[in-house]
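Deliverable D2.4 — example input (structure tokens):
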């Protein structure tokens, strides 16, 4: 039964919801605070402060009877030269906003009135300053949102990441199984599923081992009887080929049972030795002669004798034997080429190729290779063995034949690329 989060504990949904609510509350609070700032008032305050310092400088110069200099874009009038339109303004600051922007400061010095007029160009830098301030505010808001979102995401995802790492590393027991939130529900579901898989794998291994052991005795009896029959029959007897066929089939079943026993083990527990592949290939070719009898088929081998592979000899023999037997069985004429290199083996034939009903990338059990192929277990077993040995198998097939390429890790543990 699935456990639900407890009442007094914040669930993952609640934590995400609260994080977004707090983020939105902070953003709205900042917007409300920004609305309280009147940029026109800020501009007027900056202009007034600038004019205050300018007026003090002018008053100091006028007190010494010097004609003060004013900056570009500014003009200084006295009571005689001031334009008529400006005479109406009394002491203090006066101004007009865009588009006809101007700023006027009226002040008295030594008993005479002066008018300091600034046009819009004198304070153009304020526009850039305000724009830069707005850009800075936006950048800070985006950065804060990023940091808050990243922190929230890290806090939310951290349990999921830890749980995923534990599953990948097969750490038992899984973390958070006692948690009452959604992470706990997920952890318990993974734990149950993992236990079911382990029980299923154990049952499969036990079945493969028990079946293989139980079948070995009757197969040994059949093989002994077939061998006795083949030795006692006259050479010209019409029953001799049947006896030889029974013996070969029984021996093949015994080898397949050995492979099934090895496949029931974990890959890391397989016994591995140094195997010379060239003698292995030659023994498989010798066993394939019954399928080549009376056929115009030639086998060519390019296999150096010094190629040695650290692997399981029985499983490697089973892979090569199954592929080579299929090539000999279904090739009616032409060539079967075997090419061995340090980290790859290629078996190519000129047979009819795989039928369209078979996917060369995924061989399925009991999928017939042709109308006369029988139970269709061969390629499925080959694929299982290849995966068990940590090899790689690729298949190129057409109407002119099949090409099976086996690749295994080199000395550095890397697969070669063909």
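Example output (designed residues):
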């Amino acid at each position: 039964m699935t456990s639900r989060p407890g009442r007094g504990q914040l669930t993952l949904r609640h934590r995400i919801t609260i994080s977004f609510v707090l983020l939105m509350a902070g953003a709205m609070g900042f917007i409300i605070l920004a609305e309280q700032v009147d940029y026109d008032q800020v501009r007027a305050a900056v202009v007034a402060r600038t004019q205050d310092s300018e007026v003090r400088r002018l008053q100091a110069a006028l007190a010494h009877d010097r004609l003060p200099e004013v900056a570009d874009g500014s003009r200084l009038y006295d009571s005689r030269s001031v334009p008529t339109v400006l005479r109406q303004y009394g002491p203090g600051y006066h101004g007009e906003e865009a588009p006809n922007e101007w700023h006027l400061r009226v002040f008295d010095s030594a008993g005479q009135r002066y008018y300091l007029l600034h046009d819009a160009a004198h304070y153009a830098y304020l526009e850039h300053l305000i724009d830069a301030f707005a850009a800075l505010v936006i950048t800070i808001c985006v950065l804060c949102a990023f940091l808050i979102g990243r922190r929230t995401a890290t806090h939310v995802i951290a349990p999921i990441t830890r749980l995923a790492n534990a599953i990948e590393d097969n750490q038992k027991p899984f973390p958070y199984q006692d948690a009452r939130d959604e992470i706990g529900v997920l952890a318990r579901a993974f734990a149950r599923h993992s236990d079911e898989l382990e029980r299923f794998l154990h049952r499969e291994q036990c079945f493969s081992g028990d079946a293989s052991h139980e079948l070995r005795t009757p197969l040994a009896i059949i093989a002994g009887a077939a061998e006795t029959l083949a030795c006692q029959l006259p050479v010209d007897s019409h029953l001799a080929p049947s006896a030889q066929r029974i013996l070969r089939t029984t021996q093949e079943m015994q080898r397949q049972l050995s492979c099934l026993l090895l496949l029931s083990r974990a890959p890391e527990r397989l016994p591995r030795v140094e195997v010379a592949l060239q003698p292995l290939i030659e023994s498989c070719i010798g066993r394939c002669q019954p399928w080549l009898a009376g056929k115009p088929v030639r086998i060519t081998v390019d296999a150096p004798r010094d190629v040695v592979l650290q692997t399981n000899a029985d499983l490697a023999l089973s892979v090569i034997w199954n592929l080579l037997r299929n090539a000999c069985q279904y090739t009616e004429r032409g060539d079967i080429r075997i090419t061995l290199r340090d980290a790859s083996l290629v078996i190519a034939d000129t047979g009819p190729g795989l039928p369209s009903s078979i996917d060369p990338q995924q061989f399925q059990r009991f999928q017939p290779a042709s109308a006369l192929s029988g139970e269709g277990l061969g390629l499925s077993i080959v694929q299982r063995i290849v995966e068990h040995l940590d090899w790689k198998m690729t298949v190129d097939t057409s109407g002119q034949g099949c090409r099976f390429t086996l690749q295994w890790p080199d000395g550095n543990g890397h697969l070669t690329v063909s």
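The radius of gyration is 45 Å.
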